[in-house]
Amino acid sequence: MINKSFITNSLSITILLLSFVDTAYKDILFNVGAFALSGSLTNNLAIYMLFEKIPFIYGSGVVQNNFEQFKSAIKRLIVEEFFNRSNIAKLINNTQKGMNENISPILTSNKIFDEFVDVIEASSLGGMLAMVGGSKALEPLRDPIGKKFSNLVSEIENTIRDKSVALATSDDFFADIEQLIDVRLQELTPMYVKEIVAKMIYNHLGWLVVWGGVVGAFVGLIISFLR
Fold first, then answer.
1. What pTM did the predictor assign?
2. What torsion do the CA atoms of 183, 189, 190, 193 make, to the nearest 10 degrees?
3. Quick one: which of 74, 43, 52 has its CA closest to 198?
4. Dist. CA 104–CA 94, nearest whole Å
5. Cβ(49)–Cβ(61) under 8 Å?
6. How far is Cα 215 from Cα 47, in angstroms, rounded to an integer?
7. d(Cα 226, Cα 51) in Å, to the nearest integer?
8. Vertex 169 angle, CA 167 and 171, to 5°
9. Contact 125, 197 (CB under 8 A)
10. Among residues 64, 40, 8, which one has the least CA distance to residue 198?
């Protein structure tokens, strides 16, 4: 796979080095190379700061900074929409009647993934995501993310089936369910989120480096003519 960042930076450095050769175009080459390198390196740094937290650099590590927001949104979806008191009572009543109905795994995975994407788009990562095609860039993650949380929903369902309606809709039981969700969400580490998001869109972000170099070179060329 072609490394767009490496090629752009290499071309910029090559042009900059050529400016030290005594020719009639050395000033133009210097401006074009210097501005192109500045543009590409700046966008390289921006991409790096998106996924990595740099000490004392405000705004770096967007994924890590928004990680708790990711988890809170998913937890809220599971507790409030899938396992509210009404749904729990219905699940237990159906079980007692011999109706072994589950919350639809497809519905579960799709809703949880959609919530996951909504949180990303609402965070500081949303602007960068829009540059690479928006939420469609994350679509390959639908199955793995959905399966991970469908398993959690199934685990909660099995826990509920062993309870009575009164017990399963009590405050203490809801506290136990939230604790179970928290334990499972601990498996969703900041590194895991960073890796799956970066894997999907990092190749697309390489074009930001390319265009940073192109725009920088164009600015350098204009400055050379103006001088």
1. 0.54
2. -110
3. 52
4. 14
5. yes
6. 17
7. 39
8. 90
9. yes
10. 64
Cα–Cα distance list, 145 to 46, 97, 114, 148, 197 (Å) = 27, 32, 10, 5, 11
Q: What's the DSSP call for residue 56?
A: T
Q: Which residue has the tokens 């000033």?
A: 27
Distance CA 40, CA 46 (A): 10
Query: At residue 161, what is the residue type?
Result: R
Alpha helices (H) along the chain:
4-18, 26-51, 62-65, 67-76, 85-96, 105-122, 125-131, 142-161, 165-168, 171-185, 190-226
Instruction: Compute how many other C-beta atoms are within 10 angstroms of the C-beta atom of residue 57.
Output: 11
> What whole-number distance in Å separates Cα of residue 224 and Cα of residue 207?
26
Q: What is the pLDDT along the chain (227 residues), one digit of tens a residue?
A: 457 888 999 999 999 999 999 888 889 999 999 999 999 988 888 777 766 777 777 767 766 676 777 777 777 777 777 777 777 777 677 666 655 555 555 556 677 777 777 777 776 666 666 665 667 767 767 777 777 777 777 777 777 766 666 666 677 777 877 787 787 777 777 676 666 666 656 666 677 788 889 999 999 999 888 87
